[in-house]
Design goal:
Length: 105
């Protein structure tokens, strides 16, 4: 059940952020994964930002949008309790891209 909720939140947040997150030209942010704790009252949403230099700007915007994100999820999820959302910078993709660059050299 938790896996289905994680997948649903990932899909819905990706849609919401695509439509509502202001980001500089040439940059983008994507939801890479969602982890919900056992009580289903907290969700860590991992965000990847390209290029990396925009991550501070993107996370400042995400912090401002936190209430809107929760309100959007509440309108889309048929549950009484909506998990609180915490946005986390996904550094795994950054490490993977560095490794790929090194391997290409």
């Amino acid at each position: 059940m938790i896996e289905r909720l994680e997948s649903f939140i990932k899909k819905e947040l990706a849609f919401f952020l695509e439509k509502n997150l202001p980001i500089a030209e040439g940059g983008f942010a994507s939801v890479t994964r969602v982890f919900i704790n056992e009580k289903a009252d907290r969700a860590d949403v991992f965000i990847s930002v390209f290029p990396e230099e925009l991550s501070a700007e993107v996370f400042a915007e995400l912090k401002l949008m936190q209430k809107d994100v929760k309100r959007f999820l509440a309108s889309r999820i048929k549950r009484h309790k909506i998990p609180s959302i915490k946005f986390v910078l996904d550094k795994n993709l950054d490490a993977e891209s560095r490794i790929e660059k090194l391997l290409k050299q």
